[in-house]
Sequence to fold (120 residues):
Amino acid sequence: QVQLVESGGGLVQAGGSLRLSCAASGNIFSINAMAWYRQAPGNERELVARITSRGRTNYADSVKGRFTISRDNAKNTVYLQMNGLKPEDTAVYYCNTDIVTSTYFETNYWGQGTQVTVSS
Fold:
């Protein structure tokens, strides 16, 4: 069994910053890619940023230069530093990871989501 616990969401004014964290725990052998998605009301869930096990990153065009994804492999944790927040960044942010358990099978897991609200 694997659990993902997210934290760091909240209400911030435009131009402000937030840092999201997602910690994985449980039956973990290794973690491959880790990512953050977001979903605004009425919209589909979209990829925000992704980081591979070797640290290679990619970002949605809308957040390039403002958001930074990173990971701490010793803590099984992925972070999303969000600077220069805009009202259009308002959404529920979800952590997503590819985890290999002791059975050596890789499974994709989702966090419960954390609300980010940016006021104008």
About this structure: The CA atoms of residues 17 and 84 lie 6 Å apart. The mean pLDDT is 96. The chain has no helices and eleven strands. The first strand starts at residue 2 and ends at 7.
